[in-house]
Structure formats: structure tokens, C-alpha cells
Design a protein that fits this description.
Helix content of chain B: 55-70%
Number of domains of chain B: 4
Shape of chain C: globular
Oligomer: heterotrimer
Order of helices and strands of chain C: EHEHEHEHEH
Largest sheet of chain B: 5 strands, antiparallel
Number of domains of chain C: 1
Low-confidence stretches of chain C: 97-105
CATH superfamily of chain C: Response regulator
Number of strands of chain C: 5
Structural class of chain B: alpha+beta
Strand order of the largest sheet of chain B: 2-1-5-4-3
Chains: A alpha+beta, B alpha+beta, C alpha/beta
Largest interface: A-B, 51 and 50 residues
Mean pLDDT of chain B: 83
Strand content of chain B: 5-15%
Strand order of the largest sheet of chain C: 2-1-3-4-5
Structural class of chain C: alpha/beta
Order of helices and strands of chain B: HHHHHHHEEHHEHEEHHEHEEHEEHHHEE
CATH architecture of chain C: 3-Layer(aba) Sandwich
Distance between the termini of chain C: 11 Å
Shape of chain B: elongated
Helix content of chain C: 25-40%
């Protein structure tokens, strides 16, 4: 029997049949979804002739469903990879200013459909272009998705953004507060427990989104904490390093 | 693992004692010669010549010598089986010499007492004694011989026993005290001098012999230890079964160190208790004494700091947490060696001996080496267990993830179905076929989720699930009913041969349904319109055989070896129909689980035949 | 834009190939396809494409890379020098499937392709990318 030793570099998830099986599944599943999305898009684009607005509405709904599944499967895949450290820490140019502009527009857009108000408060001027992991964008997108979802209709999602620390890797610190049901500590615990996600009635992080956000934040050297926002809802504290060292 | 006693253990004969036994045997062999010599010599002289001595008495002494020699030989054999010590062998030799003196003095008396020519034989005997015995007993024996002769001379001189000199040797008066005294003096001097000379030569030889013996002993011990270390290292590297490795370590260590027992205690997670992990040679009562608190056990405390500690005599030591138990167990000496892993002690290895023993540097070094091998084994096993736990957690997580995907996929399917069924207005043929295609793809994704969850739940399955029995004919009929509509749609005929009598196999009905279902569904799926599928079930008293044959697209020779691989789909299969590539892997795993066999034969374009055989129950 | 440009798609997902065919033909391209790396390399000389859309995992995990290698390694396959200017657009669903970093390597020596897109791809974006590659 092969004897794994902790220092053996060949021991990561990649060598296990389990990993190959799951990877294969991710590939096939996402491949299938991609094909369906492409068909939906082609139909909506009128490649096979025009569709009625009523049909288009359902096609759009189906497409959203698909996109949701794609993001779930991407998150799961990266979660499993982060767990066995085989996820590559890429670094790409990142412009925090532009990123937040895009993000705030999108969040506001999503939120307005449910009459949710959003507010962004930049404590300092955001720094110029930086390098960061592509996970940064994903984390923010997913986190806002959940937080907007769990905000009550007519409620508020407010964000304070600041930069902490100087040196090569300053941190982007976000405090995001959402008005809704005040989360108690026990619920907040289960949000990050990957074996207790399937319970019903979770307002936060169904589908492992919060789990992914925290794992990804930690993977790139940051962190995510959730806390009750007393009397009003939930508060998320997110720290993300803006430049990965050594790249 | 059985401990081979491939080499004499601590309780078998050591070389020194072996040598003494050999010498005892040598003496006995010489005596056969002496006894026979006396008897036969007397007889011969008697027949050939005029015997100068009383023949019958002489013969009787010869027989006597042979008789008591027979007794000694028996004693020797007995002593050998008892694994006697040097002291016992010394006593045995003395007893032989004493008996010999008595026999000799009888002969001397018969040949003229102080005037006997046989007195010379005393010298030989003294020499023999000084070779075989340590100096003090050798001189004692020599003196005893002189004393016996002196006593005999005195008794004969006093007329208490008749003096019967041999012809030609009777010139000397046997009652002249001065003469006798002088003779005795010479005799004593000769014997003691011979004893001294022979003794000093023999002692030098003896010293060399002993040294050689010791050397041989230590070489063998060293070899044995090396062998033990090697065996332990091999055990450490060949298995991750921690208890097996540690049990091997303690057992081999006990044997190699000629100890009484050996144990390994490991620090618990908090690092403040020493828990028993393996033991050899210790009684259950002793082992039940509980965890050791290093704070109360100075020897263990020192060991945990990296020092090995020896206690040559536990009765005067206060170094143990359970001193009474140690004494009651019959333990005399203890060595405690640290089990070091990268400089940190993770536990202790203890060796116990029943007799008082001082351990030298070599012993300690050996124990330290064994202890560190044990530490490596422990780390390996712990690392592996950790990996296994991680793997298990990951599999569990994946399972939950798959579960989580089910609902959104179902909802996607239903929104597409609404479009397909025209609830939102008619679509032209091209659009509808595109939607139908999407529905089919999403259904495929559902199958993928289902199959993978199924496959995943096979792992870590409790053995109980693989128990129970089910009736196979019913299962097959159920499957046939399920696929009939699809077969009708494709105009695929299904021929079936199913026995009337029940066929009961080991397995649960749900799993058997998956096995049969996957095979028959595949057969229908990969058979073009108008084709033929045949399902045959036969059984004898040992096996049930299910043969599922189709006239479908077939499997190429290259692909045949891979059809049971997860996610493998042959090129022609991919083009022909949707599939997850997991169905046959699932079938294979289930069949394996129930100790069955599955075979596949196929020819491209002609069809495939899958044969499953399962053990029949009762 | 050259409306007669011929696009060769190599992908084992027949549904995807069909929908991409519809999209590209609607946009006025000629379209051909193969469902495995082996088939693609067999028939490419008959097709003489202007652009290749290539999947990675087909008959095996790295089938797509094999195609790239044969079409770009002119030392080993001098006969393929004629495809030097035919762009390769790699399109796969799991970019890190083979632990290879695609985005940074597109066009590099390690993976000499011209562009990389991760599935799912919007038809509009696919058309834009194809137009861009054809006009290089």
C-alpha cells in the first residue's frame, strides 16, 4: 500500500479517484447547462425566428435558472478545489473604482426590482488599479446576491468601503448591512457549516453561497464574518486583499 | 502476528552452560571406557594368566562403574532439559568425581592399598577434575583423594581391613608408618602439583572459551536486534494498521531484549495522560491499571522530556505511579524510552524484565531506535486516518451539493416543459424541436445527478445494506413492465425467458432492480428501431444467471475494456443516445457488492450481451 | 466581414454543435463539424477552415490539446503549416479541468491558441469574437 506522508507533495485531491469523478461530473454538468443556455440565447435572439414576449419571459426565466446553476456548480467546484488547495491563485488587473461602479449599478438594479434601497459609502478615495484574484469579483457578486435576497421588501442594503493597511497588500474592507429579519447567532453558525445547509427556512446562504464566499475570501487571504445587525437585520464584514503577494 | 522464536530466546540454554553440559557428557564417555576397561581387562587377564587380584571383586567394580555411569547419563539428560545453571553443572561434576574416588579407592584396596600401582590413576583423575572444575573444588577433590588414600592406608595398617598386596609390589611394608607417611607425602605432592598444573592450563583455556562464548552470544544478540529492527521497520512500512504495527513492535522488542514484557503508551490529545496503545507479556489485571499521569510518574516524565530512564530494581524505586501493581506483576527492572518524532516525545516505550538487570548503552540505544520507529508508524497511521477523514468529509459534502442541485434543475425542466407543451403559444417545428432538445438535455442532467448520488451513496455504505435476500424473477418482470412502453415506441421486441419457480438471491430488491433495470434500459436504448432484445434468467442451486442480449449498435473492441469506467461513454454510444456514463459503473459496483460477476461480449453493429451472475441464496 | 468564411467546430456535444451551426449559418458563415479530435484531424484537409472552434475534453481529457499541438507544432507536423493563420478558438466548460491556466496562456508558446472562451457563451459574444479573429 502506498503510504501517504503529510509532506508528500503528490498528495492532493487530484490523485484521488473521487476527485476525478467529481471533476468529470462538473464538466458534464456544466457542459449540458452551457448547451441549454446557448439554445435559450439563440431562441431569444431569434435565430430560429421571433418568439412572443410571453415565450421570451419564460425563456429568460429558464436562462436565469441555468445561470444560477452554473454559478452554483462553479462555486462548488472551486470550493472543492480550495479545500484541497489545488485552486490556482491567479492574479489579474483589478480596478476597485470601476469594479464598485459596476457592482453598485448592478446591485441597485437587482434591488430596485424588489424596491430595495442601496447605499454605498466610500470612506476614502478608492485606490487606482491593483492586482487581485478573479475570486474578488465573484465573492462580491455572490455576497450581494444573498444579502439582497434576504432583505425585506422596501428595506435597505448599505455598504461602507474603506482601505486598511499600507504596504504591498492593503485590504479592502467592506461592511455590508441588510435590513430584514435579524439573524440570530445560531443561524449564522449554520450558514458556514457545510453539513447543515440543507435545512429549510434559511434566509442566508442557501446553496452554499456564504460558505463559498468565506472559503474564497480566506483562500485569497481575506475573511468574511456575519453578525446580527441589532434590531435591523444582518451585517457582513468582508476583508479582501487587493494585491496578491508574489505575483 | 505470531512471534517466531527463530533463535534461542532468553529462557533457552546459554552457550556457557551448553559447554558445561558437553564436558559432563565427555566425562561420562570416558567412564564407559574406564568401567569397560576394568571389567574386560580383568576378564582377559583372568583367562590368559594367573590373576594376581580377586577377579570377581574387580569385575564387580567394573560393572559397578558402568552402572553408576548409566545413572549419571540419565541425570545429565534430565539436567539438560531443565536448562540448568553453571552451579548445577558444577555440582553434577563434583558428584561424579566423588563417586569415581570411591570406585577407585575400592580398586586401590584390592590391589594393595598404599602399595597399589593403581595410585597413579589418582593423578589422572585429579587432572580431569582440575580441567572440569574451578580451582577450589579441584583442590578439594585432590585433597579428598589424598585423604581417602591416607585413610585406607591407616585402616589397613591398623589391621581393620586386610592388606592384599599385588605380587611384585609387596616389598614395601604396609604397617611402617614412616614409610607410609613418606609415600603419602609424595603421592599428595604429585596429585596437588598435577592439579595445579592442569588447572592453570585448563583455566586459561576455559577463560578463552568463555570469552568466545560471550562474543558469539553478543554477535548473535546484535544480529537478532538488527533483525528485529528490520522487521519492525518493515511492519511500519507495510501497513497503516496502527495497532498491528505497535503490537509487532512490543512483541519483537520483548523477544529481542530477552525481556518479560513490553508496552507502548501514547500521550493523549491534551498531552497530559499516557494511554496504553500496545502491550506484550503483561497480565490483564496489570493493563487495567489505567492511564499514567506523567506528573505522578517521574520515569515517564523524564522519558517525555527525551531521556531514556532505567530502573534496575523497581522494589527500591519510587519512580512509578503504580508501584504495587508493578511488583505484583513480577517485574524487577524497567527501561522507559521516549518515542520521539522530530524531537518531540509522543509517547513512551517500556521494557520490563522479571530478573534484576542493568541495561547497557547498547540496550538503551536499541530501545530508542525501536521507539522512534514506532513513532514514525504512529505518525503515518495518523496522517492516513486524517486523509481518510478528509476524503470522507469531501464525499459527504459532494453528496449534499448534488442534493442541492436537484431542485433548481427540476425547476428548469418544468419551465422548459411549459414552453414545449405550447402553454405560451404555439411555436413552429424548428423552435419546438429546439425546446424539446433542451428538455431532453435537462432530463439528462437530472439523470446525471441521480446516478452520481447513487454511486456516491455506494461508498461508505453500511455492510448491513448488502445483506438480505430478494426474489429475482419479480424484479426482472418489474423492469420489463417499466421499459415496455419505450420498447413499443421504438418497435423493439423483447423476448423473455424467466423461470416459473422463485429465484432467491442475496441482495436487496432496490439494488437488484438497479442492476437489471440499467442493463435492460441500456439494451433498449442502444438498439435501433425494429431491433430485438432478449432477457433470459436461469439458475441452478449455486448461481442465478441473467443474460441481457440486444441487436443494438454494439461496443467496439477498444471500448469493451472501459464500459464499466465511470463517465466512460463509447464514441458510437454518445452519438446514438443520451447517457450519463455512470449506469454501468453503478451496475458493476452493485454486482461486486453482492459477490456476483458481470461480463460483456459485443461486436460492433451486431449487438451486445451482458451476463450477470449472482449467488443464489439458500 | 468575409461572409464566406468557413468555421470548423470540434466538439462532442452534438446539441451544442447544432445550435452553434444555426447561429453561425444565420450569420452567414459556412459551417462544418467533427465530434472528436481524431475525426477533426482526419477531415480537416477536406474542409480547409478559416477558423476552428475547439473543445478540450472529448474522447479523452486532453483531446483538444492534441489537435492544437498537431496544428501548431510545425516541426513535427510540417504539412500543417498551411493552417498557421487559421485561428483557434478554444471553448470549454471547465477551464481549470486540466489544471492549466487558459486565459493567461492563450497565444502563448505553451498553448498556442488565439482565443479562449468559457462555456456558456452567449451567441452574440461568440459572433463578435469570431469576427474579431477573422479580421486579424
Amino acid at each position: 500500500m502506498r503510504r501517504p506522508a503529510p509532506d508528500d507533495p503528490s498528495i492532493d485531491g487530484v490523485t484521488t479517484p473521487e476527485y476525478r469523478l467529481i471533476n468529470h461530473f462538473f464538466h458534464d454538468f456544466k457542459g449540458g447547462l452551457s448547451t441549454v443556455i446557448m439554445c435559450l440565447d439563440a431562441l431569444r435572439d431569434g435565430i430560429e425566428g421571433a418568439v412572443t414576449p410571453g415565450q421570451d419571459k419564460w425563456l429568460e426565466k429558464a436562462e436565469r435558472n441555468c445561470q444560477h446553476l452554473v454559478s452554483l456548480i462553479d462555486d462548488f467546484r472551486d470550493l472543492t478545489r480550495m479545500e484541497d488547495s489545488s485552486h490556482q491563485l491567479e492574479s489579474e488587473p483589478l480596478d476597485p473604482g470601476a469594479m464598485f461602479e459596476r457592482l453598485s449599478t448592478r446591485v441597485a438594479d437587482d434591488a430596485s426590482r424588489r424596491r430595495i434601497r442601496t447605499a454605498f459609502d466610500f470612506v476614502d478615495d478608492l485606490p487606482g488599479p491593483r492586482a487581485g484574484s478573479p475570486l474578488v469579483g465573484r465573492i462580491l457578486e455572490r455576497l450581494y446576491g444573498v444579502l439582497v435576497d434576504c432583505t425585506r421588501t422596501g428595506g435597505l442594503v448599505q455598504t461602507t468601503v474603506r482601505i486598511e493597511g499600507t504596504g504591498p497588500v492593503p485590504e479592502l474592507v467592506l461592511v455590508i448591512e441588510s435590513e430584514g429579519v435579524e439573524s440570530d447567532a445560531e443561524l449564522l453558525d449554520t450558514v458556514f457549516d457545510k453539513f447543515r445547509q440543507t435545512g429549510a427556512g434559511l434566509q442566508l446562504g442557501r446553496g452554499y453561497t456564504m460558505l463559498f464566499c468565506r472559503a474564497a475570501a480566506r483562500y485569497i487571504g481575506g475573511d468574511l464574518q456575519l453578525a446580527p445587525w441589532p434590531g435591523r437585520g444582518t451585517r457582513a464584514d468582508l476583508r479582501l486583499p487587493l494585491a496578491t503577494t508574489g505575483t | 502476528m505470531a512471534i517466531e522464536r527463530d533463535r534461542p530466546g532468553p529462557v533457552t540454554q546459554a552457550p556457557l552452560e551448553e559447554e558445561l553440559a558437553k564436558r559432563g557428557a565427555w566425562l561420562i564417555r570416558l567412564r564407559w571406557l574406564a568401567g569397560a576397561g576394568v571389567f574386560v581387562g580383568t576378564l582377559v587377564l583372568w583367562l590368559l594368566a594367573d590373576l594376581p587380584v580377586p577377579g570377581i571383586a574387580f569385575c564387580a567394580v567394573g560393572v559397578g562403574i558402568l552402572a553408576y555411569n548409566l545413572l549419571f547419563r540419565r541425570i545429565l539428560r534430565h539436567l539438560k532439559t531443565l536448562e540448568s545453571t553453571t552451579v548445577v553443572w558444577g555440582r553434577f561434576a563434583s558428584a561424579q568425581f566423588l563417586t569415581d574416588w570411591v570406585a577407585l579407592i575400592v580398586l586401590v584396596h584390592l590391589t594393595g592399598g598404599i602399595t597399589s600401582p593403581l595410585l597413579f590413576f589418582f593423578v589422572f583423575h585429579a587432572i580431569l577434575a582440575s580441567i572440569l572444575l574451578p580451582p577450589r573444588p579441584a583442590y578439594l577433590h585432590a585433597s579428598f583423594g589424598v585423604l581417602l588414600v591416607g585413610l585406607l592406608a591407616a585402616i589397613e595398617g591398623a589391621g581393620l581391613l586386610p592388606h592384599r598386596p599385588m605380587p611384585g609390589f609387596d616389598g614395601m611394608p604396609h604397617d611402617d608408618i614412616r614409610q607410609i607417611g613418606l609415600r603419602l607425602l609424595f603421592f599428595a605432592t604429585a596429585i596437588l602439583f598435577a592439579t595445579h598444573l592442569a588447572g592453570s592450563i585448563a583455566r586459561r583455556l576455559w577463560a578463552r572459551t568463555v570469552e568466545l562464548m560471550r562474543l558469539k552470544d553478543s554477535v548473535e544478540a546484535a544480529f537478532h536486534r538488527t533483525q528485529t529492527l528490520y522487521d519492525i521497520a518493515r511492519a511500519v512500512n507495510s501497513t497503516l494498521d496502527l495497532s498491528h504495527v505497535l503490537n509487532t513492535v512490543v512483541a519483537r522488542t520483548t523477544v529481542a531484549m530477552y525481556g518479560k514484557a513490553c508496552s507502548i503508551r501514547l500521550l493523549d490529545d491534551e498531552g497530559n495522560r499516557l494511554r496504553l496503545s500496545a502491550a506484550y507479556g503483561l497480565s490483564d489485571t496489570y493493563l487495567q491499571k489505567g492511564d499514567v499521569d506523567p506528573a505522578k510518574s517521574p520515569v515517564d516524565q523524564s522519558a517525555l522530556l527525551g531521556w531514556s530512564v532505567q530502573v534496575p530494581d523497581v522494589s527500591d524505586a519510587t519512580a512509578f505511579q503504580y508501584p504495587e501493581e508493578v511488583l505484583r506483576e513480577g517485574i524487577r527492572s524497567v527501561v522507559v524510552a521516549p518515542m520521539l518524532l522530530r524531537g518531540t516525545a509522543i509517547g513512551v516505550l517500556r521494557l520490563y524484565t522479571a530478573e534484576r538487570r542493568e541495561f547497557d548503552d547498547e540496550d538503551i540505544g536499541f530501545l530508542m531506535a525501536i521507539a522512534s520507529q514506532g513513532a514514525v508508524a504512529i505518525e503515518n497511521a495518523r496522517a492516513y486516518r486524517h486523509l481518510e477523514e478528509l476524503e470522507e468529509a469531501k464525499a459527504k459534502f459532494v453528496f449534499l451539493v448534488l442534493h442541492e442541485l436537484k431542485a433548481p434543475v427540476a425547476s428548469l425542466r418544468s419551465s422548459l416543459s411549459i414552453l414545449e407543451e405550447g402553454f405560451l403559444g404555439e411555436m413552429d417545428e424548428r423552435k419546438r424541436s429546439l425546446v424539446a432538445r433542451m428538455v431532453r438535455r435537462v432530463a439528462g442532467l437530472q439523470d446525471l445527478l441521480k446516478d452520481l448520488m447513487e454511486l456516491g451513496s455506494m461508498k461508505g455504505r453500511v455492510p448491513g445494506r448488502a445483506s438480505g435476500t430478494a426474489e429475482l424473477c419479480g424484479v426482472v418482470r418489474g423492469v420489463l413492465e417499466r421499459v415496455s412502453s419505450e420498447a413499443e415506441r421504438k418497435h423493439v421486441r423483447i423476448d423473455t425467458v424467466i423461470p416459473e419457480a422463485a429465484v432467491t438471491v442475496a441482495g436487496n430488491a432496490e439494488d437488484l432492480d438497479k442492476i437489471v433495470g440499467n442493463l435492460v434500459e441500456n439494451a433498449v436504448k442502444y438498439t435501433p428501431d425494429g431491433g430485438l432484445v432478449s432477457v433470459t434468467l436461469v439458475s441452478d442451486k449455486n448461481r442465478a444467471r441473467l443474460v441481457c442480449r440486444d441487436s443494438g449498435i454494439g461496443i467496439s473492441e477498444d471500448a469493451l475494456g472501459h464500459v464499466f469506467d465511470e463517465f466512460y461513454r463509447a464514441g458510437n454510444a454518445k452519438q446514438f443516445a443520451e447517457g450519463t456514463g455512470l449506469g454501468l459503473s453503478l451496475v458493476k459496483r452493485l454486482v461486486d457488492m453482492y459477490h456476483g460477476e458481470i461480463e460483456v461480449a459485443s461486436k460492433i453493429g451486431e449487438g451486445s450481451t451482458f451476463t450477470v451472475s449472482l449467488p443464489v441464496h439458500g | 466581414m468575409d461572409k464566406k468564411a468557413r468555421i470548423f467546430m470540434v466538439d462532442d456535444d452534438t446539441d451544442l454543435v447544432d445550435i452553434v451551426r444555426s447561429v453561425l449559418e444565420a450569420a452567414g458563415y459556412e459551417f462544418a463539424s467533427a465530434s472528436s479530435a481524431t475525426e477533426a484531424l482526419d477531415i480537416i484537409d477536406n474542409i480547409t477552415p478559416d477558423l476552428i472552434i475547439l473543445d478540450v475534453m472529448m474522447e479523452d481529457l486532453v483531446a483538444g490539446f492534441r489537435v492544437v499541438n498537431q496544428l501548431r507544432n510545425f516541426e513535427l507536423f510540417p504539412q500543417n503549416k498551411k493552417y498557421e493563420n487559421v485561428s483557434i478558438l478554444m471553448m470549454t466548460s471547465i477551464q481549470q479541468q486540466t489544471r492549466m491556466k487558459f486565459s493567461g496562456d492563450a497565444g502563448s508558446r505553451l498553448l498556442p491558441i488565439d482565443a479562449f472562451m468559457e462555456k456558456p457563451v452567449k451567441p452574440r459574444l461568440l459572433l463578435e469574437k469570431i469576427a474579431e479573429l477573422l479580421h486579424r
